[in-house]
Amino acid sequence: MSDITIITFGCRLNTFESEIIRKNATDAKLSNTVIIHTCAVTAEAERQAKQQIHKIIKENPKKKIIITGCSAQNSWQNYKNEKRIFAILGNKEKLIPEYYKKLADLSQKNAPHIFVGEILKNPPEMIEVKAKDELFKFDGKTKAFVQIQQGCNNRCAYCIVPLVRGKNQSFSETSILNQCKTFIKEGYKEIILTGVDISAYGSDTKNKSLFGLVKKILDKFPKLERLRLSSLDPAKSYDQILGLMKIDKRLMPHFHLSIQAGDDKVLKDMRRRHNRDDIITLCKKIHKISKNIAIGADVIVGFPDESDKEFENTYKLIKKCKITHLHVFPYSIRQGTLAAKMQNQIETEVKKERAKKLRTLGEKLKLRFIKKQKGKHTTVLIEKDNQGYTENYIFVKVSGEKITPNTIVPVKISKIEKDGTVLAKRIK
Q1: 76 φ, ψ to 5°?
Q2: Taking burial as the number of CB atoms within 10 A of a residue's CB, which of 139, 228, 400, 405 is the most buried?
Q3: How do residues 331-388 score in pLDDT, each as one tens digit?
Q4: Distance between CA 403 and CA 405 in Å, rounded?
Q5: One CATH from 3.40.30.10, 3.30.230.80, 3.30.750.210, 3.30.70.580 for 126-252
Q6: C-alpha span between 186 and 176 (Å, rounded)
Q7: 424: Cβ–Cβ under 8 A, 6 or more apart, which residues?
């Protein structure tokens, strides 16, 4: 049994890539190794990664410590003088088996061994997964992540992702369908399509689109029970996907939107490609399909020069659009981005106060949405201990006899606790 431990921070794409890293490290016969797969989307994400790295070094003096991911790509210089780190791999290098083979032949002497390339000029290679390939096991998980694209061509003023992930590249349909086929064969009930900007899927190829891919997956794999999409760009149209959701219930009624702000001036300063009305129109279309659809959103507060009135516009939009799963991020400076050089940076305490206010609203909206679920019939994908997520992404505890993990069961929502805990009874 392999003694490789992988600790993953950040997004669903990192979760997918951690399995590629695991396979590469195992095939290279690395041993006694801890690989820390980092995130750099915010300063806080990097801080947490660094804190974890120092803790692991202290607790595992005899382990080989490998740092990779977005923080390694962005800030490898911060780790280069730490001799207890065995190696640092950039976002391109972490996906290439040859680098792990090199590391297998190296010792702690002269560490850290650094392999970090210029990603904008030399973006990561696409990992083409064939049906015969060994399955990427998502340890302890019941949902499989399928990467459909890499990188981003947008240059939002606050975002470091294009600088650490490179340009948009769409995977071939053949590769994606092979991944789906493999996961379904292995018994996964739910597949989540992931990437840096999945809304851009196919924009770099001819006659391809996210809708076309989604429809092809559903048509080709009738045994697939659930298909879920990760974060979507509100600047794009999803009319076809919404139409498909009406007729194919395997496409989960759950959208997550990269809103970021609800004020037109702030959105313009952020260099986003949508405005306030675009968000409102899209949310209205989503709710028109069903009042039971969950809408999640990412929102940044305290962007440079954001006034109290502009923040209130964002607050009102979240309320108006009935966002049920809200992710709030206080703006943090990312060196190399346009926003890092902007005037009128907002004070930390103001950002904290705005984030707290918006999170409180998010909790109220989510609880209101959850309370409306009482008495409804739905299904739950059991993860462990009779707990799992409904189709519209509500975490539920199912009473009664023990249910085998990775089982989808029909339930009736029976009770909502004061703290928002959702209880359900299995329907035989």
Answers
A1: -60, -25
A2: 228
A3: 999 989 999 999 999 999 999 999 999 999 999 999 999 999 999 999 999 999 999 9
A4: 6
A5: 3.30.750.210
A6: 16
A7: 380, 396, 397, 398, 399, 411, 412, 413, 414
pTM of the model as a whole: 0.88
Q: With contact defined as beta carbons under 8 Å apart, do 151 and 17 qualify?
A: no
Tokens for 272?
A: 């986003």
Torsion angle of the four alpha carbons 363, 369, 370, 376, in this order, in degrees rounded to the nearest 10: -170
Q: Where are the beta strands (DSSP E) in 358-421?
A: 377-384, 387-390, 395-399, 408-416
Amino acid identity, residue 193? L
Q: Which residue type is seen at 347?
A: E
pLDDT at position 2, please?
61
67 CB contacts (<8 Å, ≥6 apart)? 36, 38, 53, 76, 79, 85, 87, 88, 89, 112
Check for a shared fold between 4-115 and 255-273+285-371. no
Distance CA 116, CA 73 (A): 6
What ranges do the domains of the chain cover? Answer: 4-115, 126-252, 255-273+285-371, 377-426
Fold of the domain spanning 4-115: Rossmann fold (3.40.50)
Instruction: Look up the CATH number of domain 255-273+285-371.
Output: 3.30.750.200
Residues in the chain: 428
CA count, 13 A, side-chain hemisphere, 182: 20
Assess contact for 233 and 241: CB atoms under 8 A. Answer: no
Phi-psi region of 258 (alpha: psi -120 to 50; beta: other; left: phi over 0): beta
